[in-house]
Amino acid sequence: MVGTATPRRGSQQGLSVANGGQDLCPDSAPPSNAGSECGGIEFSREDVDALLSEKIKAKNKFNYKERCENMVEYIKRLRLCLRWFQEVEASYMNEHERLTISLEIAERRLAEIEFSSRIKEEELSSIVAELSENLSSIQEKLLREQEDKKVALDSLVKEREGRLSSEKSEASLSQELSKAQLELSSANERMSSINDMYKRLQEYNSSLQQYNCKLQSDLNTTSESLQSLEKEKATLVENFSHLRGQHSSLQEQFSTIKVSYEDASKKKDLLDNEVQCLRGDLQHVREERDKNREQVEALTTEVVKYKEYTGRSIAELDNLTLKSKDLEVRCLSQCEQIRTLQDKLTIAETRVEEYSISSVETQAACEEQRKLINDLQTRLTNAESKVIEGEKLRKKLHNTILELKGNIRVFCRVRPLLPGENSSEDKSISYPTSMEFLGRGVELVQNGQKHSFTFDKVFMPEASQDDVFVEISQLVQSALDGYKVCVFAYGQTGSGKTYTMMGKPGIPEEQGLIPRCLEQIFQTKQSHQSQGWRYEMQVSMLEIYNEMIRDLLPSNRSNGDVARIENGSAAKQYVIKHDPNGNTHVSDLTVVDVCSKREVSYLLKHASHSRLVGKTQMNEESSRSHFVFTMRISGISESTGQQIHGVLNLIDLAGSERLSKSGSTGDRLKETQSINKSLSSLCDVIFALAKKEEYVPYRNSKLTYLLQPCLGGDSKTLMFVNISPDSSSSGESLCSLRFAARVNACEIGVPRRNMSTRSSESRLSSG
Ligand SMILES: Nc1ncnc2c1ncn2[C@@H]1O[C@H](COP(=O)(O)OP(=O)(O)OP(=O)(O)O)[C@@H](O)[C@H]1O
């Protein structure tokens, strides 16, 4: 740009020189290199000045012609210069325009820069203000720091002093440090030993887990062997009764054989006597015959003598002949007699022989029978002792199984959908099918979230009343063995607690646990009688309604009582007491001696009519109270003098329900609140037991106080958690399942068998 602007200035001066000094031009000689200068694009002012001065110098040196030619040449050159100037001007104009545009752009940019600089300026001014503020605060800080510094200096002095003292203490600390290091090393050693112990404990833990698995498998094998033992016991008992039958029939056979043997021996004696007589007779007849023979011989010799000496008279001879004939006849008859007697004798002898053979045979048979009887008796005693041993083993195994399973066990029962409940909705309850959780797991979906639970047993809706009872029959046996047993049903209202405990009256297949337990108890009572056991049973039934106890058995009850209770006024005050043996007594409660299932069924019917039920939105016949059925069993073995005292508590709790859902008002609301309060007290007790807390709030409700020995004592307890499959109840079901899971995790005391060997019979104490 500088290069193009400079020629413009030079050309202006050049033109003025050319116009003003036209007379000068001819004098001036054109420079030898002018053409090249004009044709060049670069033409500076200095060049033009030099040209003019050359022309002035050359003014006087050339003549006019030359000057003209020079002038023409010079003009040509000037023209060229002019063209060049024009071109330069055009380019200048272009350049000018370009510059103007770029100037505009630059101006715009300048404006922008100015704007941004103004903003920046403002920012800067604010920063400056801020900085000035900072400065003032820094100055303040500085002042403060100076003050602090002073203080610090003072403290430095003090610190120095302190340092001196700390140096002293450092020495002592270093000693302590060395001690601490020693301690640290010992602690490290301890730590390593603890780590070792930890590893060992982990190993131990894994071995325990293995042991646990082994125990589980043992448990399975034990339960299998228990089952096989049960079967063996049943076959043994069968054999036993069969042997008994055989024994009695053999005894009968033996006695008939004995009688026939005695008859035979009597007959033999008679025959022996007869033979003896016959022998005597035979001897007598033989002697007579011999005598007669001798007589005949003597007579024949006499006859011969007479014949020789015919001097005798013919009459005498005839007489003698007659005599001899008579004697011969007698002799013949006697011979006949002897023959018949001999025949008789041989017959009698053969009969005697026969009888003696048969009596020997009978004796042998008798001996055999005796041996058989002895054998049977030893087998019988063996079988009896085997049965007793088997029974003992069964009890032991059963108790071991229960101990392994835990003394408080939880069974979950899901009832089927009832008519009117929505079966088309997504199912909220499912059951895992893996081998590990089969029959023990239940899964509940609530608000799209799945909750899994495991219990000792889960009964699906298809489970029958019998399937449920089979699982608890061992517990009933425990009550007969002298244990305290408690079975209770917990769950939301309408979830099937009463159905589980009582069942449907009048339909044998739908009988609940209580009637089935009674059947088992009375059947066992009957079968144990043959083993020498005698039992006494007593029952009591009560309900807890609005935190008050009501006696449900007839003798203590009248309609007036009910009215008074229902009005909440002067009701009988039943007091719950626990004795040191863990037995519970309720004062004034009716306790009835019972001998048969029929008697208890009658009492149960009476009690279920007396029980307070009401209609709620959730259940047509909702139990509004906790029902407690208690059976005390005392047994004595006549052979060993052993005594047992068992208790069976079967409890149907009132259903938990949400006030909002139940739609209760008035008295029903009061009932619901009372039910929920006692159930929450039950939860509190279970939670305290689960956490192994020192204080367990049993006394917070009548229910928990009554159940104290079952929950925290030495009894065998089973809880049923009843669940409704209806998805609209999933919230309540989740609460129930959570509570049941806590109960399942609880550890209560070891169950104790109430057994003694006193010979004197003692009556049960009545509550
Ligand atoms: N397993 C089952 N099979 C068939 N029906 C059942 C079953 N369980 C419960 N039911 C029926 O469901 C209904 C409610 O049962 P139930 O009265 O036993 O409930 P609940 O839990 O005792 O209620 P609440 O606490 O209100 O007394 C009854 O009609 C009962 O017959």
Low-confidence stretches: 1-41, 556-570, 759-767
Tally of domains: 3
- Globally, the shape reads elongated
Number of strands: 17
Provide the helix percentage.
55-70%
CATH class category label of the largest domain: Alpha Beta
What is the CA–CA distance across the termini? 128 Å
CATH topology of the largest domain: Kinesin
Radius of gyration from the CA trace? 68 Å
InterPro entries: Kinesin-like_fam (IPR027640), Kinesin_motor_CS (IPR019821), Kinesin_motor_dom (IPR001752), Kinesin_motor_dom_sf (IPR036961), P-loop_NTPase (IPR027417)
Keywords: ATP-binding, Coiled coil, Microtubule, Motor protein, Nucleotide-binding
Binding site for ATP: 491-498
Coiled coil: 121-302, 366-393
Detail the topology: elements first, then pairings.
Elements: H1 2-20, H2 24-27, H3 34-39, H4 45-58, H5 64-308, H6 314-405, E1 408-414, E2 429-430, E3 441-446, E4 449-454, E5 457-459, H7 465-480, E6 484-491, H8 497-501, H9 513-529, E7 533-545, E8 548-551, H10 559-566, E9 576-578, E10 584-586, E11 592-594, H11 597-610, E12 613-614, E13 622-623, E14 626-637, E15 643-652, H12 659-662, H13 666-690, H14 702-706, H15 708-712, E16 716-723, H16 730-744, E17 755-756
Parallel strand pairs: 1-5, 1-16, 6-15, 6-16
Antiparallel strand pairs: 2-3, 3-4, 7-8, 7-11, 7-14, 9-10, 12-13, 14-15, 15-17
Helix pairs in contact: 1-4, 1-5, 5-6, 7-9
Bound molecules: adenosine-5'-triphosphate (ATP).
Adenosine-5'-triphosphate (ATP) binds near residues 491 and 722.
